[in-house]
Every structure is written in structure tokens, then in C-alpha cells.
Amino acid sequence: MKINPLKGMKDYLPAEQKLRDYVQGCILDTYRASGFERISTPILEDMENLDKSEGGDNLNLIFKVLKRGDKLASALASGDEKALCDMGLRYDLTLPLSRYYAANRDKLPTPFKVIQTDRVFRAERPQKGRMREFVQCDIDILGDASCNAEIELIDVTARALLRIGFSDFTVRINDRRLLRGMLSSMGFADEALDSVCITFDKMDKIGVDGVQKELEEKEMPAGAIQALVEFLNQGEFSLDKVASLCQDAALGENLRKVIQSITTLSGGAYQIAYSPSLVRGQGYYTGIVFEITCAGFSGAVAGGGRYDNMIGKFLGQQVPAVGFSIGFERICGILAEQNFAIPAEKGKLALLYRSEDNFTQVLEKAAQLRQSYTVTVLPQAKKLGKQLGNLEQQGFGTVAFADNDELKPLGERQ
Amino acid sequence: MKINPLKGMKDYLPAEQKLRDYVQGCILDTYRASGFERISTPILEDMENLDKSEGGDNLNLIFKVLKRGDKLASALASGDEKALCDMGLRYDLTLPLSRYYAANRDKLPTPFKVIQTDRVFRAERPQKGRMREFVQCDIDILGDASCNAEIELIDVTARALLRIGFSDFTVRINDRRLLRGMLSSMGFADEALDSVCITFDKMDKIGVDGVQKELEEKEMPAGAIQALVEFLNQGEFSLDKVASLCQDAALGENLRKVIQSITTLSGGAYQIAYSPSLVRGQGYYTGIVFEITCAGFSGAVAGGGRYDNMIGKFLGQQVPAVGFSIGFERICGILAEQNFAIPAEKGKLALLYRSEDNFTQVLEKAAQLRQSYTVTVLPQAKKLGKQLGNLEQQGFGTVAFADNDELKPLGERQ
């Protein structure tokens, strides 16, 4: 028998799981206090639904489940590889949510403020910080077309991070339509905008020269490239400037309102930045997009945006939607790197008994001690000194014995 | 796009998920207070490990995951159906735990008191109360060969059920070795004992006559059948009687100690019964087995037993183990049928705002109200009366408005 978990998947030790449960608890408590309600959907989704979703590269990373019984036999006989599987493991929580909302809409309030925290799966080449099975924590507001939905999602997600113990983070925000409007006004063709955005999003890494070079390689119009480069060379560019180039005053006004509201609500506890090149990968975003970055750590710890067209694919009727997803594994990884200590809870006490003790009375004594401690009942080892040392290493602060009333603190022994 | 979840799997509405989270919270709180620690393993396991496990019928119910890339291509070329898949969805939490313990033993305490609560998958023909994806809540004690492990597992599982709000339940307990010893002494052959036990376990349903008939159909020795029937016709049979037939005084003594301890620990809050025909399905149980039944509901709400040989298959060294699994879906189903009300928590308040209100101030007001309520921020509808009615139906007890300080109770309107 093989004893290791599968490639890209992980066994969590008790201390790791405790941190994960703590982080998830902070997130859930914060979201629930704001009236968001948790739902749950199956890990498996219909294969056709997955194939038709706009998941970008993720569609190549789906774990597919083999058909069973007669259906498998006829699929094998057909020789058609695509016919072998009828379901797949979900690669995110947004597609299942859209399906769920379409299926259950008559039982759900409007707007629907929803929490999902659960496992997703991607058959990626395993590498540091990239798992094949991982947890996402999402909140979404469905049915609110106003930018109040964006404001509330950002506010509550930032409060969840503060609650966990994060502080030095920045919310970066943009509206894809502003960026596209500006690029369009510079002379890039509509059908080239996605490609230009992908290059533009790398500006932090490759600089203005790199952007120019890549756009030239992509054979974009020279005049458009020149206009963009001139604009970029003016240095830091403001929302006002981009909005004026974009020639859509309402879009700029809308984003400005979101940024100002969040700035006020933050009370200075975190930063907010207009991030004109921010795009976020998913194809389904339609307007404002945002992410949270953390000083000293590359990449985002949370990301989201508005996706007004996705639920319509299931429902045949558009439903405005905004979502914000916390990168749960990223958060836990950063906390572990920082040797984060979970805030104090009830102390751990080991109640030791010998084989001659009455075990029923041992458990009765444990029940009493549980009013003040988390009590683990353990057989007393022959080498008590060594056992006490081990218990101390395992985080026990106190030891008690079945046959007397002494409570012995650990860690204060000579 | 298809909007319904896959066959045998379920979308959980907010109220259903709330009940599930409440039940899981009660279970986790109870287990953690007793020093059990939660771990987590991947949903996917190696296909060979699954195939070699002693899962009985469950081995025919595994969802298998198709290989990817080059490995899939060569598997397809080979024409070998069994080569198509390299992993599968786990059908229980005991096999993953055994693998986990073997992989991580040097980082785990002895005895290891462990919690798992997570999803498992079985490709069963869907029917009422039987899902293809469902949650199990397991606790296990690894590394304690004494019956104290059984006593503690039963005590803490029963306390978890009491904490949830269950009371009218019975812990049924047996030792497979006692039953087998008794049957052996009556003249059944060792290799026939599994089959005889399966028949005997049905006695509650088919009666003594039914047992006799089925054993005759199975062509068991007439003398052995007659000895068993005579014994059964003596009516209620006691642990003393069975133990004396079994001719192993220590086994009877051991089971008597467990039953007496649990009886004392229960304080009369639930029943304990010696259940001489109890076997439990899994092939891997080696000694004492137990289950919990609930008055008015057929089948068990929890089941478990000792499995001393399973971890050895991974580790090459025997590790004594006992587990108890709460049927989470069963518990939630019974509570839903009883219209169980989750104990009171912070009241739900809806804070209504109009489009002309300053949304930043609305969220600031919500943050203040959150000290006393779970606050959901919602746009005020044009038809306020209808909206208030809907809110009341959704469980909101209070409504507040962005532009004044009134707190309006719902449900007391004229």
C-alpha cells in the first residue's frame, strides 16, 4: 500500500488543521455577522457544464470521472475518448454557484448574499504554493447591479483579513471597461483589447519598454502603441486621466465612489489603490475587478470582480453578480511562514491515569475539569518525566493525575 | 447548461446549511473539549490502495478519476479498461486515516485521538436517505489496545449527540469474537461464521423461524442449526449465557466492563444494551462493535468498532485502533423531520437604505448594530410592507432604517 497522499495533495497534521480551522472560523464569523449565508454544492459537476464554462486555462485542468456500468461499456465500445466521462471535479466555486442560483432562485432572497468555503481541484503541475486540491473562501452578492455590492464585498473581505490578524495589505481596484475604453481611444481594435490587456497587466514586471516590445511583437498598430507609450511615460497616471481618455464620465465616477467609500470604511487600517492595469484572469468578469496584496508577499491573497453575464447562461435571464474570493491556502501559508500564534483559548490539560485506576471515574473527573480546560485523557507512561516533556512539546500547559487533586503546570518544572 | 445537481448529490439551501453547520459545530466542540484533534486528508486516494482495501461492497461503488496526458494516451492504446484510472474518490474516512497514520506516525502522539469530518462518495443507486456524496463525522483512537478506548469513544460520541439535542437513543454493543465463539461452540465451521453472522444479524427482522430457514437454505449443519434455534427459543439471552457458551471468560469480562462503565457515565441520559447479534458490515472490524439507534427511526445514527489489523497493512506493524462514525446525513435528516429549531443566537436585523442614502454611512451604521445583531444591509423596496413581510418570513426579527434610529420589531406588526 502507498502511504503518501497523491501528488499535489496534502495530509494536514493536527497543528496545520487547527490553523486552517481558525482562519476559516474568522472568515465565516465575519461574513455571517454581515448577514451572508453559507451554502454548499457538490464537489462533482456535470462534465458538459464544466466544458462550456468560461474558465480559461482551468478547463484544461479538470479531473474527470469515468462513467460506470453500461454507459462505460458503450463509451468504450464507441472508441470516443470524450465519451468516457460524465462528470468532473469543480475547478472553482463560481460556476457551481451560478448553477445553484439558477436551480434554486425561487427559494432565495434578492439580493442573495452568499458564502462558500470549500475544496476545488485543478490538475496542475505541482509546484511550491500550487496544489491540485485546495480550499477557496468566496462571498458573492447576486442581484444587486449597483456598486454598493462591490463596496460591501470589499469592506467585509478586508474586515475578515483584519480579524484573522492581517494588517499590512492593499486593496487594488480597477474597472476593465475603463482600461478597455482608454486603449480603444488610443487606436487599438476592439478584438485586440484582451490581448493588449494581458500585456499591459505585466507592466509592473516588464516596464514600459517591455510593454512596447511585446505589443510590437503582437503586431499592434504603431500609432496605438506610440500613444500608449507616451501616456505611460508621463509617469503615475490617475483615475481622472484614464477616465477622461476613456470618454465615459459615469464609469470613472462609479469607480471613484467605490474607492472613496472603501477609504472611509477602512479607517486607515489598510490601503486602497487605483490599479489601472489590473485585469484578473477569468474571462467572465465584466466590470470592476479587485484584488488584495500583502506587503512582502508576491501575488494576491484575494481576488474578485463583477460577472454580470454568467448566471444568465444557466437561467436565460441576466442576474448582476459580484464575487470576492479569499485565497485560503495563501493566507494559511503566509501565517505559517510568520509562525502565527492562534489567540489563546482554553488551556490544554492532560489527565493521566494508571491501569489500576477506575476508568469510569477517570472520565468523570475529566468531565469536571472540562469546565476550565480542554482535557485529554491519557494512560500514564512508565517514564513519567519523559512523558511530561513530550506533553509540554505538544502544547499541554497542565497535567493532572487520576488519583489526586493536584494540577501541575508544565513548562515551569526545574 | 443543466441547472440541477448531479444524481444522488445535493445543493444545500441556506437554512439546510445552517443546520448542518450547527450539528457539525456541536460535534466538533464536544470532541475537541475531550482533546481529540482534527486532521484532514485529500478527497482523492490512489486507486490501487482503494482496490486493496477491505471495503466490502463499497469497492464496487468507487468513482474513478481518468488519467491525464501521456498516461491516458498509453492507457487508451493498451485497451485495458483497468489502466484508465489512477485515482478514486474515497468511500470512507477509515482507509485514508490508516494511510495518514502510516505516513505521519513520527509526528503524531500515542495514543492518537483524532477527528475527521468530511465528504465521502459512493456511486450507489440513489434512493431516499442514500446519497452519492455525503458527510461522515469520525473519531478514532489509534494506539490503545485496552477497552478504555471503546469506553471513551462511546462516551464522547453519546455526549456529542446529547449536545446536538438528541436524547431518546440507545447504544448497542457486542463483541464479534463472542458471537463467533458461541456459534463455533454450537458446531458451525469457522469458515462459515461470516455467513452465519449475516443471517443472525437479521433476527430482529425475520425472527427465529426466519433465521432457521435461511441457515437451512445455506445448507449449514443440521445439528448446529438446531443448537442455535434451541438457544434462541429460550428467549432474551444474556451476556453471561453467551460468554459461558463461548468459553472465553476474559472476552465476556471485557465487554461487561465497557457496558458497566458507559452505563455509569451516561447518568441515565441514554440507554445501553448488549446486542448479541450485532455485527456491523465492514470486513475490517476485529472485536467490539457498537452502534447507536434512535427511537422511532430505523437503522443506526452512528456505528463503529475496533479494527486492529488495518493500519498494519500500510505500516507493516500492527497498531490497535477503534473508531466511531456519526451518520451526519442521518442526524441532519432526523432533525429536519422534527422541525428542530437551532438554539437562539444573535437576532437577525435588516438595515434598509434608499438609493439617496450615503452608502458608506449605511455600512458604518451596520458595523455599530453588529455589536447586538447579525446585520444584513439591503436596499429598501418600493413596496415596504411587502418587503417587511418577506423579511419576517426569512427569519429577520428586527428592521432598521438608514435615516433614523428606530429599531422596528417584526412579527409584532398589526
TrEMBL record, chains A, B:
GO terms for biological process: histidyl-tRNA aminoacylation. L-histidine binds at D92, L93, T94, R122, Q136, D140, R280, Y284, Y285. One of its GO terms (cellular component) is cytoplasm. InterPro entries: aa-tRNA-synth_II, aa-tRNA-synth_II/BPL/LPL, His-tRNA-ligase, HisRS-like_core, HisRS/HisZ. It comes from the Bacteria. PROSITE patterns: AA_TRNA_LIGASE_II. Its EC number is 6.1.1.21. Belongs to the class-II aminoacyl-tRNA synthetase family. It is an enzyme of class 6 (ligase). This is Histidine--tRNA ligase. It holds the Pfam family tRNA-synt_His. Keywords: ATP-binding, Ligase, Nucleotide-binding, Protein biosynthesis. Residues 1-343 form the Aminoacyl-transfer RNA synthetases class-II family profile domain. Gene3D superfamilies: Bira Bifunctional Protein, Domain 2. It catalyses: tRNA(His) + L-histidine + ATP = L-histidyl-tRNA(His) + AMP + diphosphate + H(+). One of its GO terms (molecular function) is transferase activity. SUPFAM superfamilies: Class II aaRS and biotin synthetases (SSF55681).
